[in-house]
Amino acid sequence: MRRAILRAEVAREQDLFGKYRVVREIAQGGWGRCQRRCTVRRGFERRVAIKRVHSHLSGQARFIEAFRREAELSARLAHPNIVLVLDFGRVGAAYYLAMELVDGAPLAMLMAAHEGPERRLPLSLIGFIGREILMGLYHAHEVARGADGGPLRVVHRDVCPQNVLVSRNGEVKLSDFGVARAMREGAAAFTSSTAGHVAYMAPEQARGAPTSVRADLFPVGVILWELCAGKRLFLRDNEPATLLALTSAEVPRASESRGELPREWDAFLARALSREPERRFGSAREMAEALFDLPGARGELCAAELGSLVEEMLSSPEERRVRADDVATVELSSGRG
């Protein structure tokens, strides 16, 4: 009975997205479901991540138009530090977005596994992660071009550890470019905010003031502070308290939690976390260069070291069980009759 139910579910998925075959569901969020799928064409197979819009949002024309516009914009962001958008479309009433599948985990998971004074990441690895994020942002802010050849100047607006993916190969990739903005502009009344993201929001964004590329640099500063200190910076028990901390609480020096941290890091983080945008770094590239020059921020084998940490983290007994279920689902879904 259980196998029959699974076969029926797979058949429904295949009917819905003819060129994609479901492997397993990865997660659900406020605006849709994320699933691991295979795209199959005459023996060619490539695994992708599919984001499907919830059915109650598919009928909201304003949301779908914003989602489509931002998906098309994101598809022009081709950079090693940005998750590549491969496809956007609709089957029936269901809208979806297909992206490259990153074999790894969100940075939030790695950060949670290295909280506390005994498990903090080395500065060289923190510097590597920060620079990779910043180079992805630099591409979006200043390099990416539209169909007319003009700069797109894409601002992410939702940089946070949940939207940064780290892979078993040591890759660091930004995801969800534009999707958060589409959600807020098109369907804020129909979706709930994602818990925790407000703790990484630029203060001017939280106040509803105009934002620039510097709004993406503030959350990078928050991430780097938390990686150095091994704990959260602005997150509190509820969203109002988190917003209050974000906009008005004193920001302690990271060296107070990590005594061996060179003072240059405190100065760097203080500038990155300025609540006045004009006091922050002027661009993602400038911030990346300043990070590169910090004591201890460089390393020769950082990508390999990061990949090993991700592999170790994902090799827990629970994760192995999930991957075993994944293989079983692939075998079930690959049948032709």
How would you describe this structure to a colleague?
- The model is unreliable at 29-37, 182-196 and 320-337 (pLDDT under 50).
- The chain is built from 13 helices and 8 strands.
- The radius of gyration is 21 Å and the shape is globular.
- The two termini are 17 Å apart.
- A 5-stranded antiparallel beta sheet has the order 1-2-3-5-4, sandwiched between helices.
- Helix 3 (61-74) runs antiparallel to helix 6 (179-187) and helix 5 (123-143) packs antiparallel against helix 11.
- The chain is an alpha+beta fold.
- Helices cover 44% and strands 16% of the residues.
- It has helices at 2-16, 55-58, 61-74, 107-113, 123-143, 179-187, 203-206, 214-229, 239-248, 263-272, 284-292, 302-314, 317-333; strands at 20-28, 32-41, 44-53, 85-91, 94-100, 104-106, 164-167, 172-174.
Number of strands: 8
Order of the strands making up the biggest sheet: 1-2-3-5-4
Counting DSSP H or I runs of 4 or more residues, the number of helices is: 13
**Overall 3D form:** globular
How confident overall, as mean pLDDT? 80
The N- and C-terminal alpha carbons lie at a distance of: 17 Å
Which percent band covers the strand fraction? 15-25%
Order of helices and strands: HEEEHHEEEHHEEHHHHHHHH
Judged by helices, strands and strand pairing, the structural class is: alpha+beta
Q: From the alpha-carbon coordinates, what is the Rg to the nearest angstrom?
A: 21 Å
**How would you sum up the major sheet?**
5 strands, antiparallel
Helix content: 40-55%
Low-pLDDT runs of 5+ residues are 29-37, 182-196, 320-337
